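Hi W.,

Here's what went into the run:
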Amino acid sequence: MPSSDAPTSNVAIAEDRPWEELLRLAQEGTSVELEDYVSQLSTADQCLALSRLDEAEETQVLEALKAEDAAELISHLPEVEAARMLGLLDTSTAAAIVQEMPSDEQADVLGDLSDAQAEAILDELPREEAAAVRELSSYDDDEAGGMMVREMLRFSDQMSVRDVIQDLSDHGEDYSDFDVRYAYVCDSDDRLVGVLPMQNLLFVKRAERLADLMIVNPISVQAKASLDDLVELFDAHNYLAVPVVDEEGKLQGIVHREAVDYEETRAIESDYLKSQGIVGGEELRTMPLWLRAKRRLSWLSINVFLNIGAAAVIAYFQDTLQAVIALAVFLPIISDMSGCSGNQAVAVSMRELSLGLVRPTEMLRVWWQEVSVGLINGAALGLLVAILAVLFNGNPYLGIVVGIALFTNTIIAVSIGGVVPLLLKRFGFDPAVASGPLLTTVTDMCGFFLVLGLATMMLSKLI
Amino acid sequence: MPSSDAPTSNVAIAEDRPWEELLRLAQEGTSVELEDYVSQLSTADQCLALSRLDEAEETQVLEALKAEDAAELISHLPEVEAARMLGLLDTSTAAAIVQEMPSDEQADVLGDLSDAQAEAILDELPREEAAAVRELSSYDDDEAGGMMVREMLRFSDQMSVRDVIQDLSDHGEDYSDFDVRYAYVCDSDDRLVGVLPMQNLLFVKRAERLADLMIVNPISVQAKASLDDLVELFDAHNYLAVPVVDEEGKLQGIVHREAVDYEETRAIESDYLKSQGIVGGEELRTMPLWLRAKRRLSWLSINVFLNIGAAAVIAYFQDTLQAVIALAVFLPIISDMSGCSGNQAVAVSMRELSLGLVRPTEMLRVWWQEVSVGLINGAALGLLVAILAVLFNGNPYLGIVVGIALFTNTIIAVSIGGVVPLLLKRFGFDPAVASGPLLTTVTDMCGFFLVLGLATMMLSKLI
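Here's what came out:
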């Protein structure tokens, strides 16, 4: 580990409004002063400061930094922001920065640019690097190919320990960011044939060949391996990285455990956003207003039409409602409480699916476990609401109607909430997006139908 | 990396019902056969299989495995499950298994047992190990002390390279799971004085002292460092681990990057559960029914009382509602749509808070950015709903009432949704738990008030 990063220059630290200091140094200070200031900010404040500048100012800051420092800075930003800012720069500046980024980040950020912008930058990269990036970009973010990096120790099986030590000595600088716990050993056709724990080099004679020291038949994955496969692999083994090979067994790159952790976290964060109705991808408030409004509205308009179903039930029973207006007071309570119960069931199903504690085919089992809870909680809530109704209105039949309706609708809600995520997953849909609205619509319709239907049946007792 | 883990024994793999095969082998097979079967299951299936057994059967399986294999198996389970199963075993079996676990897991799992059970197990551990575990247990899961492990390479600054190589050679087995990229160098008082990148040992003479080779003044953290501090540190530096020292600078352990990633993911998953009303901790459907029902019900009952507020608004305007019963059809649409808009704003605020792109004090800024979106989407939705009302009922004044109400309530909802998470965080509350219900209650009340209040004002035009 390098010694502490505390700056030695005397830059005034504008704690409150770091974006002002950032801009001032970009315009008036040297690139060293600017980099010193940036590196003493927390990464969160680096992102915050950049996000408060307008496009011209962001460009000034990125141009004022050395390419490697600019690459470091934008690597902390959310991907869409990093790509947007690169797109503001002229092609050679952008290319210089991209060249300083690790290979998986290069692919990610170029993938977020328009094809024209990405091509322009790739044209300015060294041919071999551009070809490598193009290849990495062909993979999705949640495949091994999209997570792998090419920065690894790679040696030939014919090399001796002395050769390896010489190589490390010659290329120490280049390797300074690599994970050097293992080296990957290939044959003359670049096929991965073994893995070498580097610490073993301390114990052996320098004339030994790697072919005799390495661990043969190492575990590897194909570039198309999914995030789930990789999570499973890193769960089962203590590895810090796993090599990626093509169909011929040639070594293409390595996937670090931390890259898999990162993608897993991103998937969870994305599920949360989708379950709350942010379905068009990341929304940051610095994005253009029309984009934010448009994306949110596309979700909201779908919901309006789902809501019409529940409203239609009320329209159908208008006369009953008009005759027993007290029912209108309890309709929102019943729909809201059923929604809450259902959401709890959805959350537990999502959690158990992610932990692998339930399979998407086990719907009957889940349904039974949810109904059990629904019976208990439905009875408790139904009783509570029945008592409230009688206190409000005096008529015990009102209590019976709303109580039975909430009891029944709770059971319906937890049944749907528990089962729908499994159903969606079973048929290849995204449970995070659709579970919420489906649940709410159906439980509202059922809830209103139960209350107003029962009330219609018992109308004479209620008026 | 060791060669592939594929089993060599011919165990029949019961794909469909792995818990049956697991039990059969525990009762009839050898511990080697059982371990072979377990290790060829995915970790998800290991958890699933165990969770489908009853308590007596779980005990049989854990007792049939060798202690280190049992430790490996339960390390894949959610913490509460691992602790529960350990609690079922007799103390010496449990202690043997605990001894095989890495130090941070030991602390975690004992922390989830009752004090009596934990003490009984600790008494059976070697004194030094028990003392270490007690110390680790004194920290919260989301502090450096709760995430650190003691398994690291630790050498004296007076040692030579030759001494180190000898030590690695003697203790190779023990160190097989350690992160050996760095060794931590301490003085005679156990104070951390330097860090040594192990690869450097390849290039130097064996007589050199560590004191001359190490990097001095390494970055370290105190045991009380928070998860946020650690996330920031690993964001800013490429380290795979960071040492933990006490107030005197003595080395206590190291925190791995992956431990921090893990806690970060756990925090996000926990936020998701809490935002959906699972607030009493992890819920797994294998937990006792009364526990699941009770925890969910505690949340639901609070919500009933929040709902009473909105219901009271309707009760207050009963007469208007009875006179213009068509309003009842639109009340749920308006409350639901406002809730959706508000939830979108909450999600974006939670996301921006976690990325550090907004500070909890910047409520005015967030409010303005949300109101901008609210004006656009509120106008669009209000218009849509007004058209639906006129199509339904014919009376344009109904359209005006519901349209204005939804327009206004959308703006209210996004304002509250955007600001409440910042407000809660600013004052030390958990935004994940409270944002949802607060939002729903207030927007329901406002929504009903707007519709019914406007309708009352324009009653003559609506009847």
